[in-house]
Write a structure and sequence with these properties.
By secondary structure, the protein is mostly helical. The chain has one domain. 79% of the residues lie in helices and 0% in strands. The relative contact order is 0.22. One of its GO terms (cellular component) is membrane. It comes from Terasakiispira papahanaumokuakeensis. It is a multi-pass membrane protein.
C-alpha cells in the first residue's frame, strides 16, 4: 500500500485534474470546425484504452466472474459516462460557445441531487430544494441570454443547449449509479473496462459520421495533438490524479474542488478563444453557483444538524 500523499500535493493533484477537464471543453470548442465531434470522442477513448490496457487487462482476468455478474451495471456506466457524456458535450459545442457550455455543465451537482431523490429516494430538505430552483433559474438566464421575452429567437441554436443539458443528465445518472459498481473491481480495472465498452458503443456512430455524413478528420498536427491532450491529460492523468486526491483527502473535502472545472474553463475560453462574459453570463453564474452552495454546502449542513439533534 502506497504512503499517503501530503495534503498540499493531494490538493494540487485535484486542482490539476479540474484544469485538465476544463481544458477538454475549451479545446473541443477550439477545434470544432476541423474535428468532427464523434471522431474526437472515439479516438480520445481509443488512445486512453491503448495506454491503460496493460494495467487493466490483468485485473479483468482476475475478476472476470465479478465482471460477468455486474455486466448490466458496467454497460450502463460505460454508456452514460464514456460514450454519452463527452460526445454530447462535443456535439453541443459545435454551435454553443464554451462559456455557455461550461456554465450549463456546472449544474451537475444539482441534477445529481434530484436523481438521487428520484432513484434512491434520498431525502432533500427545503434549503437543497431552494438551491436547485435558484440554479435552474441561472440556466434559464443563460439559455434566454437574459431576455425571456425573446425565448423563441434563442432557440435558433437550441440543439446545442439540448446536447449539453443531455450531457449533464447523462453524467448525473452515471454519478448516481456509480454506487452500484462492483466493489471488488479495482479502479484501473473499472475505468479501463468502461473505456473499452464505451469505445465499442461509439464505433458505429463514428463510422456513420465518417462514411455516411462524410465528415472526415484531417491528420493535421493540431488535430493529433488535440486527441493526445483529451486522451492522455483529460482522461488518464485526470482520472489518476483525481482518484489519488480523493483517496488521501476523502470525498467530502475533494468534492468542493470539482467546482473549479467551470472556473478554469471560463478563464481558458476568455484567454484563448477570445470569448467574452456578458452581463447575462454573470447573472446566470451567480444563480448557478449560489444554488450549488445552498444545495451542497448549506443543505448538507442543515441535514447533518437535524440528524445530530434527533440522535
Amino acid at each position: 500500500m502506497s504512503a499517503p500523499t501530503p495534503p498540499r500535493v493531494a490538493y494540487l493533484l485535484l486542482i490539476l485534474s479540474t484544469f485538465f477537464w476544463g481544458g477538454n471543453f475549451v479545446l473541443s470548442r477550439a477545434v470544432h470546425a476541423d474535428m468532427p465531434p464523434l471522431a474526437l470522442a472515439f479516438w480520445r477513448w481509443v488512445l486512453a484504452l491503448v495506454v491503460i490496457l496493460p494495467f487493466a487487462w490483468p485485473q479483468w482476468k482476475r475478476h472476470r466472474l465479478l465482471i460477468m455478474q455486474y455486466w448490466k451495471v458496467l454497460l450502463a456506466l460505460s454508456v452514460l459516462g464514456i460514450a454519452n457524456f463527452n460526445t454530447f458535450v462535443y456535439l453541443g459545442l459545435q454551435t454553443q460557445p464554451a462559456t455557455n457550455g461550461l456554465l450549463l455543465l456546472s449544474i451537475g451537482p444539482i441534477v445529481i441531487l434530484a436523481l438521487s431523490r428520484l432513484i434512491f429516494k434520498e431525502s432533500i430538505n427545503v434549503v437543497q430544494m431552494l438551491g436547485m430552483m435558484i440554479s435552474l433559474l441561472g440556466v434559464g438566464v443563460i439559455v434566454t441570454q437574459g431576455q425571456p421575452g425573446q425565448l423563441a429567437q434563442q432557440f435558433e441554436h437550441a440543439d446545442g443547449y439540448g446536447w449539453i443539458l443531455a450531457a449533464v443528465v447523462s453524467w448525473a445518472l452515471y454519478s448516481v449509479l456509480l454506487r452500484l459498481r462492483p466493489a471488488g473491481l479495482p479502479g484501473i480495472g473499472l475505468f479501463g473496462l468502461t473505456v473499452l465498452i464505451g469505445a465499442i458503443v461509439l464505433a458505429p456512430f463514428y463510422a456513420y459520421e465518417h462514411w455516411v455524413q462524410q465528415r472526415h478528420m484531417a491528420l493535421t498536427a493540431v488535430n493529433l495533438l488535440s486527441i493526445g491532450y483529451v486522451g492522455i491529460f483529460a482522461s488518464i492523468l485526470a482520472f489518476m490524479f483525481w482518484n489519488r486526491g480523493v483517496a488521501d483527502l476523502g470525498p467530502a473535502r475533494a468534492g468542493y474542488v470539482i467546482h473549479l472545472i467551470p472556473v478554469w474553463g471560463l478563464l481558458l475560453a476568455t484567454g484563448f478563444l477570445g470569448e467574452q462574459l456578458m452581463a447575462y453570463h454573470w447573472m446566470g453564474m451567480c444563480c448557478i453557483f449560489g444554488g450549488i452552495w445552498l444545495a451542497t454546502v448549506r443543505g448538507r449542513a442543515r441535514s447533518g444538524s437535524r440528524v445530530l439533534k434527533s440522535a
